[in-house]
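On clarity, I found the account of how folds are encoded harder to follow than it need be. Since the whole study asks how a given chain folds, the encoding of that fold should be made plain. For the editor and my fellow referees, an illustration may be useful. An entry of this sort, consisting of the sequence and the corresponding backbone structure tokens, reads as follows:

:::
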Amino acid sequence: MLSLRLPHIPLFVGKSSSEARAEVIARLPNLSAFNGSAITLKDRMDSERGYLRRILQNLSEVELAYLNSIAGEMATAGAVPSATMTQVLRDNPQLLRLRLAYASELDYALDRTNARGGSGALSSDMLEIRIVNLSSKSSGSTSEAIRKRVPSSLTVGKLRLMLQQLCGVSIQDQLLSFRCDLGGIPMTLDDDNLSLQYFGVLDGAEVFVSESS
């Protein structure tokens, strides 16, 4: 499938257009255009990594370990998926492919849940983010980045309000992106109604603030 046009998707009722677009892209690896808009490499990487992170954030330590044991489509001897994990795999047929394509995301999730003593799903975490001001209001030194602890449920809209105070960039001029590792490609935060958790923002992530010209 190269192109798809779906002006209304009943399965995504209650989700924004950008949320629906990201999930469609992640679930259909051969799609090159959706609703008349071309899918760039960055679109695909953003969508797939965010989709994978949202799944991983809601898995327990045992379920993450099982997923880590999978090589291709074969599990190591003695590894048996839980009923929840079986349903997750059934509902997300691209999960095994994405687990291999973005192995660092699973490694990061395992490290985090192990550090927390294996206390289960990650979705209720507080996050420490490093805010990097790249706008004209910045002094130009990334060493002056601001560290803040925020709930993973914080919406991008509320984050913008906080950044307006911290960085001096008006809400309407803010262009926001983030990355969770130093070598990663920054991904955009482009829907004010969605949470940091939805986008896959993790503890220790950098949030970049630039401004529209």
